[in-house]
């Protein structure tokens, strides 16, 4: 089956390569490996037949011992000690104990899940060494594996909910996440004139003077407002909060309520303030922690707004996220509760994280708008 698996992989890789780079450069073995990892580990879930064939076969055999015993009882064939597929897996995952798979009394009930988890975990550990990843590539790979970073991939395309992207937008998002250059390295930002539009698009993402910077924020805000409204939660968008005023001139100087949720915590209104950041700004070789930028942004918002809200019988909730979809704990807590309310008030599958998928898609759609706005015309 090896030849057939390789043939299948060649076609699958060619297809995703055509979608992402349209026959252009920069789609190499690293990009293919990323694409073929499970979604929960930062990949696109496009499994390589060559990679998964051995563990799928061994798991299948381990889960069908009773049937094997019945079919092969007079053949003299038993066990998997000398099985070729098992030998391949032993070489691929040397630290894994395969003894449980060679005995029908110890074979795990979820053999496929157990083996796949061990196999892909080993592949992830091997990534940095095998591909000699740069500091930026390592940071991006960590961001892709963060909780909720891949939620957008599970969002069902629905035009009425704004869950759709143009081919150019989706291709751009895939390039950004697969570490494929988007711009010329030496192109100066046409607006701020202070920095280069680096090849991977980080300046285009965080430059406040470029068009589209506020669009991403507003996109996520609008989707959060729509989710709450559809779930039956009383909310108001961009609600004026009268107590946050400057005594000298009576004008509001603080705007902590991108979305105001009425009676959300102990009967108190909740001021939800959204902040989107790029986790890779100022990246250095001194170390990188996933979500650090979003957590810092959330902390700054709390320092700025929480006291005033508390003193006036309001609750302040920072809603911080980064360009890869990482959500600060306060945002996760809010969305988890909204999902529970939706499950109670709306007919939605309990096993589907509709709320997180919609928010994840909104983040990526807003990011796509920023990046596409800066793409040179020939690339579009």
Provide an overview of this structure.
The protein is α+β, with helices and mostly antiparallel strands. The protein folds into two domains: 2-132, no CATH class; 202-379, no CATH class. The chain is built from 13 helices and four strands. Strands 1-2-3-4 form a four-stranded mixed sheet. Helix 11 (292-311) links the parallel strand 3 (268-277) and strand 4 (314-322). Helix 8 crosses helix 13 (354-374). It is globular, with a radius of gyration of 25 Å. The two termini are 40 Å apart.
General shape: globular
Q: Rg, please?
A: 25 Å
Number of domains: 2
Beta strands, count: 4
Order of strands across the biggest sheet? 1-2-3-4
Helix content: 40-55%
Uncertain runs: none
Structural class by sheet pairing and helices: alpha+beta
Major sheet details: 4 strands, mixed
Strand content: 5-15%
**H and E string:** HHHHHHHHHHEEEHEHH
Whole-number mean pLDDT: 84
Counting H and I runs of at least 4 residues, what is the number of helices? Answer: 13
State the distance separating the first and last CA atoms.
40 Å
Short description:
With 380 residues, this protein is of the alpha+beta class. The protein contains 13 helices and 4 strands. The protein has 2 domains: 131 residues, no CATH class; 178 residues, no CATH class.
How are the SSEs ordered, and which strands pair?
Blueprint: H1 2-21, H2 29-35, H3 49-62, H4 65-71, H5 84-92, H6 111-130, H7 135-144, H8 167-177, H9 202-206, H10 213-230, E1 235-237, E2 259-265, E3 268-277, H11 292-311, E4 314-322, H12 329-345, H13 354-374
Parallel strand pairs: 3-4
Antiparallel strand pairs: 1-2, 2-3
Helix pairs in contact: 3-5, 3-6, 8-13, 10-13
